[in-house]
Amino acid sequence: MAQDGMVGSRIRERRVAAGQRQAQLAKAVGISASYLNLIEHNKRRIGGKLLLDIATELGVDYAQLNEGAEANLVASLRYAAAEYPDVAAEMDRIEEFAGRFPGWARLIAEGQEAVQRLQRTAETLSDRMSHDPYLAASMHEVLSMVTAIHSTATILHEDQDIAPDWRRRFVRNINEDSQRLSDSAQALVRFLDGGADAADQSGSPQHEVDQFLQHHNYHFPQLESLEQTPDTLVAAAPELKSASARAQTRGLLRQYERDAQALDLNVLQDALGQEGLDPATIANRLNVPIGLVLRRLAVLPEDQQPKPLGFVVCDAAGTLLFRREVKGFVAPKFSAACAKWPVFEALTRPAQPIRRTIEVPGRDQEQFDCFAVSEAISTPSFDQPTLYHSYMLVVPRDARVTSPLLVGASCRVCPRQKCEGRHTPSVLIEGI
Amino acid sequence: MGKRVLLIEDEPNIIEAISFILSRDGWDVATHSNGHDAMEAVRVRHPDVVILDVMLPGRSGYDILNEIRADAETQTLPVLMLTARGQVKDREMAEEAGASMFMTKPFSNADVLNAVKELVA
């Protein structure tokens, strides 16, 4: 790493921490105190043997002085400052600050990272609380039982002259509701306590499917070679507990099996090597549909992918049927995804390939190239609507573009202030 | 015979408890437990006030309320909405749909009774 111009500040900070005087250190490394003073105030560049001698004398690594353990620290401070522009932190002195006060700087960076972690947890919990149908139904059940018990108990308590048959009836009701409340509460606790990282556990069929696909890294050599069938794979998957998850997975694997027979991965690899990561050109070269190329690229083993790839599939109702996330690109598990995703735009123009560069909010504001296309999944008919699935391959960009399409994950956790696509207030803007 | 209350709620023991306290207070209570044909029940029974749960099988309370407000015969009918959710947005949705009053579960018997009395006063 190149010097950041603050080597002198780090030398000074380490020297003071070691309790050495400037003259003492200068003498030890064979330079004048005034020259060391210029170095420590970053008015002279330093490197090579002299820096090595100083590092040895101070008992620190050469790299620690040269590159600074503060490289990441400075990046974190820049991010913290950008998050709070009203504070007007002295951006031009950020490296000096990190060099001279590394402890305080680390404290700020740690605080910023803690805020980020809490924000992510809040996003996950909010997404879950707002959109998980099981949780919503469970809470409704519990509150209804509490209401019934409270109301009935109040009647029994306040009306001492209540007729015996009514009394028996209400006592029976309370007994029934108490049992139901107990069952509901236990189910809710089991649901919320479903794993060590409760914020990420859902217990929903979709979650089971996601777990299964992740467990296999989205790649099934048994289906490539026809050694197994979707049914045998699903039957041997303990993580697919619910009938809904098993049915959903069978559907995905049957599509996988058909795709594997239609386009061999070795053939795809060859075309990829010739054409690069350009799905439309590969599809033309192989004379196959673009959707097929997108689906096959998405299931390449990680070590055969030209770079990490994300992938989503949705139906015409916008329901995400398949999600493979890639670093920086998050697909919501419960709530509706961002309406600006190209995968949805592709639904408006069936069979027309769409390429968009998107930028997601967040610390790094990462950019991705998205290749999307929607294709019919039902036989066209004059009497029935044609059904479509839309596919989107998500490819991290190496170089940034200046005018990307600004998207989010879902409205609920999107910090973008002005968006014509917003349908739900954001917890990042308005709180939970 | 007292004033008529139509209670549209799907929890049988809540129905029983609310019916009891209202009947004991002299109200003529009719009940209905699903959303599908709740509007039909409103038209047939001509209640003076409706107590309407939000989460009903078949149709949401908000949809039913919208239809009540859209019908010239029932558009001024007082409606007390009950919900298990108490977030601000739920209250706003109830108000937008035209609820006369909004109450969050769990509620007290006295509150329900007072609300109903207030709505027909």
UniProtKB/TrEMBL annotation, chain A:
<dbReference type="GO" id="GO:0003700">
    <property type="term" value="F:DNA-binding transcription factor activity"/>
</dbReference>
<dbReference type="InterPro" id="IPR001387">
    <property type="entry name" value="Cro/C1-type_HTH"/>
</dbReference>
<dbReference type="InterPro" id="IPR018653">
    <property type="entry name" value="ScfR_C"/>
</dbReference>
<dbReference type="Pfam" id="PF01381">
    <property type="entry name" value="HTH_3"/>
</dbReference>
<dbReference type="GO" id="GO:0003677">
    <property type="term" value="F:DNA binding"/>
</dbReference>
<keyword id="KW-0238">DNA-binding</keyword>
<protein>
    <recommendedName>
        <fullName>HTH cro/C1-type domain-containing protein</fullName>
    </recommendedName>
</protein>
<keyword id="KW-0805">Transcription regulation</keyword>
<dbReference type="InterPro" id="IPR010982">
    <property type="entry name" value="Lambda_DNA-bd_dom_sf"/>
</dbReference>
<dbReference type="GO" id="GO:0005829">
    <property type="term" value="C:cytosol"/>
</dbReference>
<dbReference type="Pfam" id="PF09856">
    <property type="entry name" value="ScfRs"/>
</dbReference>
<feature type="domain" description="HTH cro/C1-type">
    <location>
        <begin position="11"/>
        <end position="65"/>
    </location>
</feature>
<dbReference type="InterPro" id="IPR050807">
    <property type="entry name" value="TransReg_Diox_bact_type"/>
</dbReference>
<keyword id="KW-0804">Transcription</keyword>
TrEMBL record, chain B:
<feature type="domain" description="Response regulatory">
    <location>
        <begin position="4"/>
        <end position="120"/>
    </location>
</feature>
<keyword id="KW-0597">Phosphoprotein</keyword>
<keyword id="KW-0804">Transcription</keyword>
<dbReference type="Pfam" id="PF00072">
    <property type="entry name" value="Response_reg"/>
</dbReference>
<dbReference type="GO" id="GO:0000160">
    <property type="term" value="P:phosphorelay signal transduction system"/>
</dbReference>
<keyword id="KW-0902">Two-component regulatory system</keyword>
<protein>
    <submittedName>
        <fullName>Response regulator receiver domain-containing protein</fullName>
    </submittedName>
</protein>
<dbReference type="InterPro" id="IPR050595">
    <property type="entry name" value="Bact_response_regulator"/>
</dbReference>
<dbReference type="InterPro" id="IPR011006">
    <property type="entry name" value="CheY-like_superfamily"/>
</dbReference>
<dbReference type="InterPro" id="IPR001789">
    <property type="entry name" value="Sig_transdc_resp-reg_receiver"/>
</dbReference>
<keyword id="KW-0805">Transcription regulation</keyword>
<dbReference type="GO" id="GO:0003677">
    <property type="term" value="F:DNA binding"/>
</dbReference>
<feature type="modified residue" description="4-aspartylphosphate">
    <location>
        <position position="53"/>
    </location>
</feature>
<keyword id="KW-0238">DNA-binding</keyword>
